[in-house]
Each structure stands twice: as C-alpha cells, then as structure tokens.
User: Fold Adenylate kinase from Pollutimonas harenae.
Amino acid sequence: MRLILLGPPGAGKGTQAAFITEKFGIPQISTGDMLRAAVKAQTPLGLEAKKIMDTGGLVSDDIIIGLVRDRLTQADCQDGYLFDGFPRTIPQADALKEAGVKLDFVVEIVVPEENIIERISGRRVHPASGRSYHTVFNPPKTPNTDDLTGEPLVQRDDDKEETVRNRLAVYREQTRPLVDYYSEWAASGNPDAPAYRQLSGLGAVDD
Ligand code: AP5
Ligand code: ZN
Assistant:
C-alpha cells in the first residue's frame, strides 16, 4: 500500500500516520521529520533547512525530491509506505509521477483553519520519534513525557503563532493546489491515478 496524507499544518497527518502505518506495517516517510533529524544532527542540509523552517517557508523542491528519492531505495520501502508532508508543491507531485511511483490512495485530512492554531499551540513532540501529543486533546500518560520512551517532550521551534500563520499561508498558496491535482486525476478515470478520499479531521484523535 502506497499513500499520501495531505492536509494543512496541524491537521493531524502525523497523528493519523502513526495509526495507519501500524495497521498496514508500512514505514512513514515524513519529510518534516527527516528535515528535523538533519537539523538536530547539524548537517549542512539541516543548517540550511532550519533557516527556512523557522520562517514557515518551504525547503527547495530539489532538496526534498533528492531526500525522498534516496529514502525510497531503502529496503523497508519496497512493499509500500505512507507519505506525510510530501508532496507539498506541484513540482514535487510531478517528480513522484515521473519516477513512476504507483500510489493507491491520496487521503486529504480536512480541518478548518480556526481549529489549527489551537491544535498547534498545544502540541508537544518527542523529537527522536516525531510522536505528537496535545496538552488537552491527546495528552501523554505523564505530563511532558513520551509514553513509549519516558523521554521529555518539547515544543517545535516552528510552532510559534507567527510562524504558524505563515505556514498556513504557504499551505494555501503552494500545497492546497494538490487537492485539485489529485482529485481531478482520480476523477479522470486514468488507471494510474490513486483513489482520492477526504477524511474529517474533527473526530477524536483515534476515531
Ligand atoms: P511538517 O513537519 O510536515 O509540518 P506540517 O505540514 O506543518 O504539519 P505538522 O507536523 O505541523 O502537522 P500534522 O498534520 O502532522 O499534525 P499533528 O498530527 O502533529 O513540516 C515542517 C516544515 O518542514 C515545513 O514548514 C517546511 O519548512 C519543511 N518541509 C517539510 N516537508 C517539506 C516538503 N515536502 N517540501 C518543502 N518543505 C518541507 O497534530 C497537530 C496537533 O493536533 C497535535 O498536538 C495533535 O496531538 C493534535 N491533534 C491531532 N489530531 C487531533 C484531533 N483529531 N483532535 C484534536 N487534536 C488533534
Ligand atoms: Zn507532522
């Protein structure tokens, strides 16, 4: 199974990805998590990416496409995977198509903008795994502590309100067009097109 989770920042892509990848036994390919790992390791890519991520902008298509291309050659990706936060621009989606990747589903998580700021402001993450919690909606068993490792949770650097507003604007301009891109492709009846599904992101975390 190969699928994309599409949706604005804070929609719950990472949260739902954890359930779906466990159910289907496939890896989660989160370009955001990959970039945060590079930032933490202070690689040249990470240092460059951090400047962009802190403003809420997008890292260049060439860098992201290269990262994903390398990731897809790894052994655990041969029987399927879930993309979280990729593709995020039309050129990224075109690159995936040109690489001949045959997707089964594109799932759009639909959440109104007014819910997003509150979700992101209460988010706490476990940096090593990318697991997300929420202080109110999805609290860890012990405050500020990852359920599985017992390690501390932190707030993401790009979760400041001003950065979040910019991430939302960037989503509207550069990523939202992928909703039409994939839904129109699915409606065209082309046998290569993945099925398109919308999922309400307003239910409980584990609905
Ligand atoms: P990335 O890490 O992909 O961030 P994002 O798309 O902004 O999405 P988030 O991780 O903020 O939200 P999410 O949808 O995963 O929500 P979550 O499950 O955590 O990207 C970060 C940056 O990296 C980008 O800004 C860009 O600079 C760069 N980047 C990454 N990929 C790139 C690419 N392909 N091209 C270029 N640049 C790229 O949930 C949010 C909160 O809500 C949590 O607290 C959660 O507990 C809570 N929650 C979840 N579900 C529910 C629910 N049903 N009810 C109530 N609360 C809920
Ligand atoms: Zn995420």
